[in-house]
Write a structure and sequence with these properties.
Blueprint: E1 8-10, E2 18-25, H1 27-32, E3 40-51, E4 55-69, E5 76-92, E6 96-97, E7 102-106, E8 111-113, H2 115-124, H3 138-141, H4 159-170, H5 174-183
Parallel strand pairs: 5-7
Antiparallel strand pairs: 1-8, 2-3, 3-4, 4-5, 6-7
């Protein structure tokens, strides 16, 4: 727990203004957390805390490298990452997580530990496919298609729909027309 205590921020008695904190850690950080996702890495985090009477707004800018294992070759490799996230802690009567970004903390809280937030942001910055840089192809590196790639239009609103609707009216099956005549329409 000695490593994680470096991530304690005493909030009791802070004035309503901005505070900056710099934190740095490595393998000891990942070992102390109860997790199996990341075993080795090194990172630096800059935390900007904006305190007001009703809430704390924390902005985390984290950069570093992680030792990952390739999903294809099972070879270890270093992967650089960068994360820029924020979380809002509102003062209330109890501790509760409202959304991924907003939490309620007890008014009487004297100290917060930001280690779990930092770890969560690092874990979210991991690539879905962990591919060794020597084995990567252009297809692996493209997470989102470029504008040059042809796309299929799934839904569109506008005049084009109206003309398609008119064409459908004109192309009614003749058997249905005969049934409408029997019905008297």
């Amino acid at each position: 727990m000695k490593e994680l205590s470096k991530y304690n921020i005493d909030i009791y008695g802070l004035e309503d203004k901005q505070y900056d904190y710099d934190m740095e850690s490595g393998d000891a950080f990942f070992e102390e957390l109860d997790q199996d996702i990341i075993e080795h890495g090194h990172f630096k985090t800059h935390v900007v805390l904006n305190k007001s009477a009703t809430m704390l707004q924390l902005n985390f800018k984290t950069e570093g490298t992680l030792r990952l294992v390739c999903d294809r070759s099972l070879e270890p490799f270093d992967e650089a990452f960068s994360s820029n996230e924020r979380i809002i802690l509102k003062f209330g009567d109890r501790d509760e997580e409202l959304t991924d970004e907003i939490e309620i903390i007890n008014r009487n809280t004297n100290r917060i530990n930001v280690a779990r937030y930092i770890f969560d942001f690092i874990a979210l910055s991991l690539p879905i496919k962990k591919i060794h840089p020597d084995l990567r192809t252009e297809e692996d590196e493209e997470e989102f298609p470029d504008d040059d790639v042809e796309a299929v239009l799934v839904y569109s609103s506008g005049e084009q729909e109206e003309t398609e609707g008119e064409e459908k009216k004109e192309q009614i099956d003749p058997r249905w027309e005969a049934l409408k005549k029997l019905k008297g329409e």
